[in-house]
Amino acid sequence: MAVSEEALGVPRHEHVRGPHGKTQPSVAAPLTKALKDRHGAGAVTRARLGFLAAWLALFVIGWLMPTPAGLGANGKATLAVVAWVAIIWVTEAIPVGVSGMLLPMLLVLSHASPSFAKAANGFAAPVVFLCLAAFLFSSIMQQSGLDRRIALALLDRLGVKTANGVIWAMFVVNFVMSSVVPAANARAAALLPVTNGIVGLFGDSPRERDAKKAIVIQTLVYGAMISGMCILTAHLPNMVVAGLLEKQLGVRISYLTWFELQWPYLGMFAITQCWVQFYFRSRSVPIPGGRSAVTAMRASLAPATGGDWTVLAVFGGVAALWAAEAWHHLPSEVVALIGLAVLFAPGVLAFGWADVERRTIWGTVFLLGGALSLAAAIGESGLARWAADHIYVFARGHGWWVTLGIVMLATHVIRIGMLSNVAAVTMIAPIALALAPRLGLHPVAFTMLVSDTDSFAYVLPTQITAGVIAYSSGVFTTADYAKVGVVSVLIAIVYGLCVIAPWYAFLGVPVWDAAAPWPFPH
210 in a domain, yes or no? Predict the structure, then answer.
């Protein structure tokens, strides 16, 4: 069962007329190649088997399996849908956009949700509009050629020569942006067109395709999430945890205290970089032609037009408003839609809606809405809490590091069917806080470590919005992402145990001492 470009909202043609009359690759070009590569005879067999297995799992869990103790009928029905979609996503049995649209239907048929309106509420979630606006921004930048212009300027100024250099340069950009853009998803959205422009410089040889996968995954997912852990306002789950600890324990974590506790996470990026580069064998893959080629290509670009500067000014205004969210209190999605309203005012763009629409991968938007609907069902049906209740049975009676490792692993199992980090942390952090005294562990250290590892959900691109944004590039498959991501999750768990937990202890917050007083000012 092959996935077509049309199913994902991608046009058949692989080249479009770019700015100044030049022909350039469209967003369909890298995705078309990826689709051809992933759908050989073996992939078709896997898809067919996955399709059958998914429906069998749905039927067995939803209608034949007895309701587990403590889980309720709605929870069991939701578990059946989670099993169905996990198999579908891993085996790529049907287009991801279609799977997203089918989820509300499955929630209704399985009786996990009482009505279709409630089952489909994820499609009206604010983050859906943020991602849609991000995809439209990316399409506008591609159509105008700004993505290529920005990418070449960035690489030229930083003297980047290889894929490895690109990744490190983009991590620096990620970290700088994390101090002013208050959401990892917003940073990934802002960097999507730039990253697309950079990977567009590489060719189509096997090594270059792998290098593009490494760049996109490391930049838009790992880089965005890891850099966001260090700044309190750079990652929305950070603020959820800080607010919970202040409300429940009276422990206030300031902007500076959060950075002092969390900055060692920056070192984790070096480890994931080594692993990703090793897996994709892309460390020494050069940018075609080296730095001189980048400089020459930048010089060959036609001068920027007034329209180009207008588009950049609008994007800059959107970024500034994102950074000033604490002042104006406008949500990121509202700011993004204001930017779209300005861009599509008569006479602003030199091209029309049809050109933008042709470059937008609509299937990813449907995927996002369906995943959010499922995330809501997991929380409301009691499935997440039921799963967490079982963690205590396995975690008790061990040393602190074994207990913490078990809870971290269990958290990632719970996260399989969830997309929103905010939703996941909202459900998991209170459970971790309640578990800590039962396990004899420090409530602040334990809750923060468990919540932190929740953000490193790298098994499926649908687990975090940054992964969905990266998947929209069409550079990698879900199988690519999962294979490299499983080890990356283990890296995050080991890093938390071996680096962050000892660092907390050095600062006076040992996870193994529940009675240790909070050493920072309240």
Answer: yes
